[in-house]
From TrEMBL, chain A:
Homology family: Belongs to the leucine-binding protein family.
Entry annotated with the keyword Signal: yes
Name listed for the protein in its UniProt record: ABC transporter substrate-binding protein
Boundaries of every Leucine-binding protein domain copy: 27-363
TrEMBL record, chain B:
UniProt similarity note: Belongs to the binding-protein-dependent transport system permease family. LivHM subfamily.
Presence of keyword Glycoprotein: no
Annotated protein name in UniProt: Branched-chain amino acid ABC transporter permease
InterPro entries per record: ABC_transp_permease (IPR001851), BCAA_transport_permease (IPR052157)
Membrane topology classification: Multi-pass membrane protein
Organism lineage string: Bacteria, Pseudomonadati, Pseudomonadota, Alphaproteobacteria, Rhodospirillales
Transmembrane segments: 12-35, 68-87, 99-118, 149-168, 200-220, 232-259, 266-285
Keywords: Amino-acid transport, Cell membrane, Membrane, Transmembrane, Transmembrane helix, Transport
One of the Pfam families matching this protein, by short name: BPD_transp_2
Subcellular compartments: Cell membrane
CDD domains in the record: TM_PBP1_LivH_like
């Protein structure tokens, strides 16, 4: 199966090489994410809309590139995700898989695509392992990762005086990796970790875990979870008087849609790290208004990342006149990235896409001037210090 | 200060209380399921979705009609219960003479449709619903801070559960119900309208789920999947208690809430499976459930 795939792939490549001038290329983009579970609002259909917008803005049709977008629901399950990925690349000639939130599912797809003729441009998942020791020549990790979140939010909290930490961690690859990366930042800044509790994913009632965090006496409760889990944890922390009693919450991964669900009353004052916010400048506002018209909600950084990734991918396809994994990836890595949402950036040898990150603080209801006006920018973390230095990741692709 | 298995007793009391609070939801939901199964022989997989509908109706009543929490606590069960009655008349009643499996498939399908429709309309992140002002704040019990609202959940649930048990086991109306399910023809011969009684029973079971949904709205986020996870656990509770046993469902609901709460202290990673482990053991040792009678 694999062999024939290679032969067919090679044949197709040589055919395309001869017709490169005519540029009649078929590209199939698969958006694989959560379309029904707790991450559906932050990725889901919104990511498909973002991919479609990228194809329109790139004006693929007039450049002789025929793009087809397919999508599927991986239900946040690694086995479902890898089955779909395998079917897409073996039977349906999908060239590139986008988004893939849920770290455990992302790592599974990452392994399926390794050494295949397809790429993964991951926007939704968080684990920094995608560009660490397990890095792959077929994966780009686009939008954010656990190291960057820990470095942004974690160090900001320690600098504000939160020196002892207790982690409330979602019990799967993402939570573990976010906890590990944040603990390292806390300790490097002179803080200490006094305890950890790992909760089943997804959860509903977090009061028991919060009470354990409370009795630990830690100054900061680090929430190494995401989506609906984080929303419920923050709500219940307020209900049990934990924040009022002086412990502060560090939401290590909070998306715009989470703040929207919490409401500003409950979310105000949270400090968080993201790589995109709709209200950064004129270009992000203009794009987000278009997105809003199609989706009905403002975009999250995950959806913005899908847009940016598709745009850069199509540029590489145009440049190489091919959809083969190797030349396209080489072109993507050698060309700096530039788009209206993330500005200037680049893709490093280990597959990490770098760009500026922002430290935001959630506004109070009085400060907010209308729907979706949620964040104040506290600081911009420049691209070269926002992500884990390449030599610390131990990625074998880096020489 | 002495410690029990490495946990200070104060913390343990706190966790027991939290377990009891979660058990309240299990008890109310498994009670409804047990009534519906016991009297109608239908495995009502829509129960989780009906619980979710209760929370959504409360949210919508507040958004569009300005009806607050207390009004919703009364109205939402009536509205969702009426919806249940329509379902029973139009669809479920056609399946009474068939195998359990058909009822299960129908109600499971209905649950998926309801969740899908609401997901399409409201998304998945959840909608905010505030704790009513009369019940905000909390009490410092010495060993933990108990939010007033959670205390209210336990009280309301105990009243509703034992009120229902009393009505079915100790009153004349309950006796008709139980007789009607044993031998509908004979009870009908006494001039009692058995099909209508069955319909109303289904509506009541559904209303119980909606009531639990309204109780849950202020503490869990109101979202279309809120019942989907819960219903599986609640089914395990019903199986452990004994299918169709009213008292079994109530006691097992509270009891398993506590067991789950303790697991969250001693082995948090296992807290989502502990109930299923217990279910497997109970099925092996006493297949009819702890409170069930072997047929």
């Amino acid at each position: 199966m694999k062999k024939t795939g290679l032969i067919v792939g090679g044949l197709a490549a040589s055919l395309m090489a001869t017709s490169a001038l005519a540029q009649d290329i078929d590209v199939k983009i698969g958006v694989l994410n959560d379309r029904s579970g707790l991450y559906a609002d932050l990725s889901g259909e919104g990511s498909v809309i973002a991919a479609r917008m990228a194809v329109e803005d790139f004006d693929a049709a007039s450049k002789g590139i025929n793009v087809e977008i397919v999508s599927a629901d991986h239900q946040n399950k690694p086995d479902v995700a890898s089955n779909i990925a395998r079917q897409w690349i073996d039977d349906e000639d999908v060239n590139v898989i986008l988004d893939v939130p849920t770290s455990s599912a992302a790592l599974a797809v990452h392994e399926v695509l390794r050494d295949s003729n397809a790429l993964m441009l991951n926007s939704g998942a968080a684990t920094s392992d995608l560009t660490g020791e397990a890095c792959s020549p077929n994966t780009v990790h686009w939008t954010y990762d656990t190291w960057a979140l820990a470095n942004g939010t974690g160090s900001a909290m320690v600098q504000q005086g939160g020196e002892s930490w207790f982690f409330l961690t979602a019990d799967y690859a993402f939570g573990h990796s976010l906890e590990r990366d944040t603990a390292a930042v806390v300790e490097a800044n002179g803080g200490e970790v006094v305890g950890t509790v790992r909760h089943p994913f997804p959860g509903q009632d977090f009061s028991s875990f919060l009470l354990q965090a409370q009795s630990s006496g830690a100054q900061v409760i680090g929430l190494a979870n995401a989506g609906g889990d984080t929303v419920n944890t923050i709500k219940q922390a307020a209900e049990f008087g934990i924040t009022q009693a002086g412990q502060s919450l560090a939401g290590l991964l909070i998306f715009l849609t989470d703040v929207h669900a919490l409401g500003l009353e409950a979310a105000q004052g949270l400090v968080l790290t993201e790589s995109f916010y709709w209200d950064l400048d004129d270009e992000t506002r203009a794009w987000s208004e278009r997105f809003m018209e199609a989706k009905g909600d403002m975009p999250t950084m995950v959806q913005a990342g899908v847009y940016s990734a598709v745009l850069h991918y199509l540029k590489a396809v145009e440049e190489t006149g091919s959809t083969d994994a190797e030349p396209v990836m080489a072109a993507m890595k050698s060309t700096p990235t530039s788009d209206p949402l993330f500005g200037e950036g680049e893709i490093r040898a280990d597959g990490r896409k770098i760009h500026d990150l922002y430290l935001f603080e959630v506004k109070s209801p009085d400060e907010s001037e209308g729907a979706w006006d949620y964040y104040d920018v506290l600081a911009t973390i420049p691209a070269d210090s926002a992500f884990r230095p390449m030599e610390e990741g131990n990625c074998p692709l880096v020489e | 200060m002495f410690e029990l298995l490495g946990i200070p007793p104060q913390a343990l009391f706190g966790q027991l209380l939290l377990g009891l609070i979660n058990g309240s939801f299990y008890a109310m939901l498994s009670l409804g399921l047990a009534i519906i199964f016991g009297l109608l022989n239908i495995i009502n997989f829509t129960h989780g979705a009906q619980y979710m509908l209760g929370a959504f109706v409360a949210y919508l009543l507040l958004q569009y009609l300005g009806v607050g929490y207390w009004g919703a606590l009364l109205l939402a069960p009536i509205i969702v219960g009426a919806f249940g009655i329509v379902l029973e008349r139009l669809m479920i009643s056609k399946l009474y003479h068939l195998d359990h499996l058909y009822g299960l498939l129908l109600t499971f399908g209905l649950a998926l449709i309801l969740q899908g429709l609401l997901r399409n309309e409201f998304g998945i992140s959840g909608l905010p619903y505030n704790i009513p002002s009369q019940l905000s704040g909390g009490q410092n019990l010495g060993f933990m801070f108990l939010p007033n609202y959670r205390g209210w959940v336990v009280v309301a649930s105990v009243i509703v559960c034992f009120g229902t048990w009393f009505m079915i086991e100790k009153t004349r109306l309950g006796a008709y119900l139980r007789a009607g399910t044993e031998n509908p023809t004979l009870v009908g011969a006494f001039g009692i309208n058995v099909p209508r009684m069955i319909t109303l029973t289904y509506g009541f079971g559904v209303a119980l789920a909606a009531f639990a949904g309204v109780l849950a709205a202020p503490i869990y986020s109101v979202n279309p999947n809120m019942g989907a996870e819960l219903i599986i656990v609640v089914f395990a509770v019903v199986v452990i208690g004994g299918m169709g046993s009213i008292l079994g469902a109530i006691l097992t609901g509270f009891g398993l809430g506590i067991v789950e709460g303790l697991t969250r202290v001693f082995y948090p990673e296992g807290s989502s499976v502990v109930i299923f482990v217990i279910m497997a053991i109970v099925l092996l040792v006493k297949p009819a459930g702890l409170f069930g009678r072997t047929a």
